[in-house]
Design brief:
Layout lengths: L1 E12 L12 E9 L20 E12 L2 E5 L2 E5 L1 H10 L21 E3 L4 E3 H4 L11 E6 L33 E8 L2 E10 L16 E4 L2 E11 L4 E7 L4 H10 L6 E2 L1 E3 L1 E3 L5 E5 L5 E8 L2 E4 L5 E4 L4 E4 L4 E6 L2
Parallel strand pairs: 10-15, 16-22
Antiparallel strand pairs: 1-2, 1-3, 3-4, 5-8, 6-7, 9-10, 10-11, 11-12, 12-13, 13-14, 17-18, 18-19, 20-21, 21-22
C-alpha cells in the first residue's frame, strides 16, 4: 500500500487559531510518497524561526492507494479504556484470556482539528462522537502527527537548513536551489527558483527540485510535466499527479506564456571531476572545448572560456559556464 503525505506549515501569530490556516499564512509545503505505511519523518524545505508565544499549525493530508483505489485517511491512537478492560476481565470465564493493558488519552480543546471539506472542527469534540456504537469502550487519542524544533538564538535571523543530509546549497553545487512558493491566481506553486545551466539537456519538472508542488487550500499536487522557455526563463505547468482534470487545466492556463512562473539560471560550475574534452591547435591554443552536462556534451563558445597553456588550466566564464578544469 502506497502512502502519500501532503504537509503544510502555517504561521498563526501570537493569538492565531485554525481560521488563520489560510494561503496568506502558508510558509512551507512538502509532499512525500512512502511505499509502506508506518511512522515517517518529513523534513521542511528550510528553517523557520518562531518567538516565544508564536503559534503555528501543521496540516497533513494523507492518502493511500491499494487494490480498492485511493482513500483519504485519518490516523489517531486507539486503545481500550480502563472500564472496558475491567468489565471484560470480570465477565470472561476463568480459563479465558484476560486483558492486561488499557489506554489513557488526553485531547485538549484547541489542540487538534479535522477538516472534511466543511471547515475546521475541534477533534476533542469530534472524538466524543466515536465513543458509542461500534467504538464503545475505546479511547481515541490525538492524531499521529508530531512537530519538532530546536532552541535557537533569537538574534539569529539566518535562514539555515538544519538537516545534515540537506546542507545549504550554493550555485557551485550545480543543483536546484532557493525553494520557495510563488502565487499564481488561486494557486501556490513551490519549486526551486534557481537551477544550473543544463547545456543540451531538456528541462523537466525534476530540474526544479523533488518538491515541485502546486497547492490550493489543503490540496497539493506534484508537478509531473512542464514546458520551460530558456529565453524568457518562464515555466508552464502541463501535468499534475493525481489532480482533478479541471485543476490541471486551470493551472496549465494560469502559467501559460508570459504568465509562466519565473526561474533563474545559474552558470554550470565546471570542476576537475567533470568530463571535459578539449582540442588543441599545433600552436598549443585551445580550438574547442566540450563539457559533459547531465550526460550530454555542450560545446562551449569561444567567449565562454580562456586557456592558460602554461598552467594548463581552462577557465570558464559567462552566463552559462563558470569554474575551471585542469588539462590531464
Amino acid at each position: 500500500m502506497t502512502m502519500a503525505e501532503q504537509m503544510f506549515l502555517y504561521k498563526l501569530g501570537t493569538n492565531g487559531d485554525m481560521s488563520m490556516a489560510v494561503d496568506e499564512n502558508l510558509i512551507d509545503i512538502k509532499v512525500k510518497t512512502f511505499e509502506y505505511a508506518g511512522f515517517h519523518r518529513i523534513n521542511l524545505n528550510g528553517a523557520y524561526h518562531f518567538n516565544k508565544g508564536d503559534r503555528y499549525a501543521i496540516v497533513v493530508t494523507e492518502q493511500s492507494s491499494d487494490e480498492e483505489g485511493r482513500k483519504y485517511l485519518i490516523h489517531a491512537g486507539v486503545g481500550f479504556s480502563k472500564d472496558y478492560v475491567n468489565n471484560w476481565n470480570e465477565q470472561i470465564p476463568e480459563d479465558g484470556q484476560k486483558k492486561n493493558n488499557y489506554a489513557v488519552a488526553v485531547v485538549n480543546t484547541d489542540e487538534s482539528y479535522m477538516n472534511l471539506g466543511n471547515g475546521w472542527v475541534d477533534w476533542a469534540t469530534v472524538r466524543e462522537g466515536y465513543a458509542t456504537g461500534d467504538f464503545e469502550g475505546l479511547v481515541i487519542d490525538n492524531f499521529s502527527i508530531k512537530a519538532y524544533g530546536i532552541p535557537t538564538d533569537p538574534k539569529d535571523d539566518s535562514a539555515v537548513n538544519l538537516e545534515k543530509e540537506e546542507p545549504v546549497l550554493t550555485p557551485s553545487d550545480n543543483k536546484a536551489m532557493d525553494v520557495r512558493p510563488e502565487t499564481v491566481g488561486d494557486y501556490h506553486i513551490t519549486y526551486a527558483h534557481q537551477i544550473p545551466f543544463s547545456g543540451k539537456g531538456k528541462l523537466t519538472a525534476e530540474s526544479f527540485g523533488e518538491n515541485f508542488i502546486v497547492s490550493q487550500g489543503n490540496a497539493a499536487y506534484k508537478v509531473k510535466k512542464i514546458k520551460a522557455s530558456n529565453k524568457k526563463h518562464r515555466i508552464q505547468i502541463l501535468k499534475l499527479e493525481n489532480a482533478p482534470k479541471d485543476v490541471e487545466k486551470a493551472v496549465k492556463k494560469a502559467t501559460k506564456g508570459d504568465n509562466g512562473i519565473p526561474y533563474t539560471q545559474n552558470p554550470y560550475y565546471v570542476k576537475d571531476t567533470d568530463k571535459v574534452t578539449p582540442k588543441f591547435k599545433k600552436s598549443g591554443a585551445a580550438s574547442s572545448v566540450k563539457v559533459n552536462i547531465n550526460g550530454k556534451d555542450y560545446k562551449a563558445k569561444k567567449t565562454e572560456y580562456d586557456y592558460d597553456s602554461t598552467l594548463k588550466v581552462i577557465t570558464f566564464k559567462g552566463e552559462n559556464l563558470a569554474g575551471s578544469w585542469t588539462v590531464k
